[in-house]
Amino acid sequence: AQSVTQLDSQVPVFEEAPVELRCNYSSSVSVYLFWYVQYPNQGLQLLLKYLSGSTLVESINGFEAEFNKSQTSFHLRKPSVHISDTAEYFCAVSEVDSSYKLIFGSGTRLLVRP
Amino acid sequence: DGGITQSPKYLFRKEGQNVTLSCEQNLNHDAMYWYRQDPGQGLRLIYYSQIVNDFQKGDIAEGYSVSREKKESFPLTVTSAQKNPTAFYLCASNPGYKNSPLHFGNGTRLTVT
Questions:
Q1: What is the DSSP string of A14-70?
Q2: How far from each other are the two terminal CA atoms of chain A, in whole angstroms?
Q3: Closest Cα to residue B66, out of B17, B20, B13?
Q4: What are the distances in angstroms from CA A14 to CA A11, A22, A113?
Q5: Helix (H) or strand (E) holding A90
Q6: Which residue of A has its CA nearest to B49?
Q7: Could you say which DSSP state residue A9 is in?
Q8: How far apart are alpha carbons B102 and A23 in whole angstroms?
Q9: Is A83 helix (H, G, I), strand (E, B) or coil?
Q10: Which of B94, B109, B92, B91 lies closest to B29, judged by CA?
Q11: Whole-number pLDDT of residue B1
């Protein structure tokens, strides 16, 4: 069965510092991978996705994630964070043959300090 | 603007009462989903519907019921059989084809005392 592990429940970082949010998944078949962001008391918004092709995917606000098949990872990175990046980030995976079902990780709270 | 509307934002109920959470979308999406979010546990799938008049149980369907009489609407009823109903409930939709990401509503926070 597929599963998603986000080992860090909270990541504190200073403004303008780089950050990496880790995501590892477990699946015996090909997968699609997603990162979602959730601001307080709101729903989730898609940040970026890997479907196929280039293993490095980018978002419009400076985040990027790299699909590493051998390590079954999809870590999220940003070279310089802003206060406004403070939010909870969820990694999610769906199997290519049954992509109606999205499995979410437990989330990582990114706390950016001035 | 197209989107998903969940109402109300906050809901309070007494234990033993059924309560229905509303979810409406104007994105013309075929598929709709209900997730439950608890602190530190991520999102867990309650029910999903890929087409009108059809729906399937997710991972934690016990104590919940849904209907899908219209494409735009997917209400969730939290019944008195749900042992721990206090949570943040999120409705989502997508076009239904493979690899299409989910669009989420802003959620309903249900508190049962």
A1: ETT--EEE--EEE-SS-EEEEEEEE-TTS-EEEEEEE-SS-SEEE-TTS-EEEEETT
A2: 41
A3: B20
A4: 10, 18, 5
A5: strand A87-95
A6: A100
A7: S
A8: 19
A9: helix
A10: B94
A11: 65
Q: Is the Cβ pair A100, B105 closer than 8 Å? A: no
Least confident of A100-104, B25-29, B60-64: A100-104
CA distance B17 to chain A (A): 25
Q: Report whether A106 contacts A81 (CB < 8 A).
A: no
From CA A110, how far away is CA A113, in angstroms rounded? 10
| CA dist., res. B49 & res. A77, Å (int) | 34
* CA–CA distance, A48 with A64 (Å, rounded to integer): 8
Residue B63 backbone dihedrals phi, psi, to 5 degrees: 90, 5
- The one-letter amino acid at A74: F
pLDDT 10s digits, A40-66: 888 999 999 998 888 888 888 899 999
- Cα distances (angstroms) measured from residue B77 to each of A34, B66, B102: 29, 6, 21
Query: Which residues does chain A have within 8 Å of residue B50's beta carbon, measured at their own beta carbons?
Result: 100
> What pLDDT, in 10s, does the model give residues B76-94?
999 998 889 999 999 999 9
Q: Which residues of A touch B48 (CB under 8 A)?
A: 100-101
Query: Are B20 and B108 within 8 A, CB to CB?
Result: no
With tokens 């079902």, the residue in question is A101
